[in-house]
Design goal:
By secondary structure, the protein is an alpha/beta fold. Helices cover 51% and strands 7% of the residues. This is F-box domain-containing protein.
């Protein structure tokens, strides 16, 4: 290698090295001078982006608020319109009612005035007739004879207001209504007023009325009948089934009906769920009927089971099943000699609204029953326990301080009750007919102290 080539190689190598270091220094030094500007530019872009996001968020909140206000305003306007429409309807109905009452009152006044004018005319004619008789040479007849002789002025009852006619026929029995309906066509129309058939008492005509007439009557007035009384009636099963047609029935009395069975009570309970008063005294119902009562009669308030000997403690416990007869206010168990303390315990655990309880003649009940009543029946007001020989005087005295009225007698039941002190039926040689004019109820005697207790 020649010196010239060596010099040339060193020069090239030195220039290359200088160029490399200079480029590296330049790459390091120049960015340091522009870093502040780039950082400021990035900060500015970040602030713009942040401001944009903030404006977008605020605008979204404002949009939601305005939308909610519009919806609230629309709902308020709709409610105001509904209230205004309701007020308009109320005003129209009020004016219509006042106008109808005025028209009805005017018509009633006209009918009353017409009736008074007719009555005045009849009195004037009667006075003229009396005056003419006084001038004659014949002896003066009495007022009663004058009123019965000659042509009697007409006094049509159909001209009376409908309210007065209904009030007159309301006091008639079923037999009298039937007789009045055969007088004439106008009287028949007056006896067909629906308000006169809200309560039908078939017990007053039980010896003359037929099953066919009972069925036809119930079919015709099934929507108006609220009260039915079949006390002592001997009816067929088909006739008792027709009671189920009365969907609005509230009171039913089938006491002393020897033909009443569990099957007929099943039809009645399924068809008449709104019964409030039910009297089953002295019938042959069993536990099947007792199981039907809480299933269908949820609003039952008054129940009478006096002298029903076929059901047991289990049947009485059925009253607490499901919704049960928990609204009972009055319960009559007098003469039910098969009832024990366990049944009363279950009954008092659910019937918290019981006000009146009659257990007269229940010879198997003891002092434990009174303790259960004190715990469960807080609202008990009247307690009747005549001829309950197993209830002590001390327990009865403690109970008298809780209830308002109490009837207690520890003696044996009279022979005409039909059973002895143990609840067993009397033999024929011991049976004594009940005294006249005495029904199968216990004599009331309220005791407030130990001296008054017999």
């Amino acid at each position: 290698m020649t010196p010239e080539l060596m010099i040339k190689a060193c020069t090239f190598y030195t220039g290359r090295l200088v160029k490399t270091h200079f480029c590296s220094w330049r790459d390091i030094a120049i960015p340091l001078t522009n870093e502040d500007d780039e950082l400021a530019e990035k900060i500015e872009r970040a602030m713009k982006y942040n401001n944009f996001r903030l404006q977008k968020y605020v605008f979204h909140l404002w949009h939601s608020y305005v939308k909610g206000q519009k919806k609230q305003l629309t709902d308020t306007l709709s409610q105001v319109q509904k209230m205004l429409h309701c007020y308009k309807l109320t005003a129209i109905l009020t004016k219509w009612r006042d106008k109808a009452r005025l028209k009805y009152k005017k018509r009633e006044d006209e009918l009353i005035l017409k009736h008074e004018l007719q009555l005045l005319k009849w009195r004037n004619n009667l006075k003229l007739k009396l005056a003419a008789n006084e001038e004659s040479i014949f002896p003066e007849p009495s007022l009663s004879k004058v009123s019965l002789e000659g042509n009697i002025p007409e006094c049509d009852i159909s001209l009376l207001p409908q309210r007065a006619v209904s009030q007159i026929f309301f006091y008639l029995s079923l037999k009298d209504k039937i007789i009045c309906s055969h007088v004439c066509h106008s009287w028949m129309l007056m006896t067909q007023a629906s308000s006169l058939w809200n309560g039908i008492d078939f017990s007053t005509v039980k010896n003359i009325i037929t099953d066919k007439y009972i069925v036809s009557t119930l079919q015709r007035w099934r929507l108006n009948v609220l009260r039915l009384n079949f006390r002592g009636c001997i009816l067929r099963l088909k006739t008792l089934r027709s009671v189920s047609l009365c969907r609005n029935l509230q009171e039913l009395n089938v006491s002393d009906c020897p033909t009443l069975t569990d099957e007929s009570m099943r039809y009645i309970s399924e068809g008449c769920p709104g019964v409030l008063y039910l009297n089953l005294s002295n019938t042959i119902i069993t536990n099947r009927t007792m199981r039907l009562l809480p299933r269908h009669f949820h609003n039952l308030q008054n129940l009478s089971l006096a002298y029903c000997k076929k059901f047991t403690d289990k049947g009485l416990r059925y009253l607490n099943l499901g919704d049960g007869c928990h609204k009972l206010i009055y319960l009559d168990l007098s003469g039910c000699t098969q009832i024990t303390d366990s049944a009363i315990e279950m009954l008092s655990a659910k019937c918290h609204y019981l006000h009146i309880l009659d257990i007269s003649g229940c010879v198997l009940l003891t002092d434990q029953m009174l303790e259960d009543l004190q715990i469960g029946c807080k609202q008990l007001r009247i307690l009747k326990m005549q001829y309950c020989r197993l209830i002590s005087m001390e327990a009865a005295k403690r109970m008298s301080s809780i209830v308002q009225q109490q009837e207690y007698n520890p003696g044996d039941p009279p022979l005409w009750f039909g059973y002895d002190y143990e609840g067993k039926p009397l033999t024929r040689q011991h049976e004594i007919p009940p005294p006249k004019n005495v029904e199968w109820t216990v004599t009331e005697s309220t005791h407030s102290s130990q001296e008054e207790v017999v």
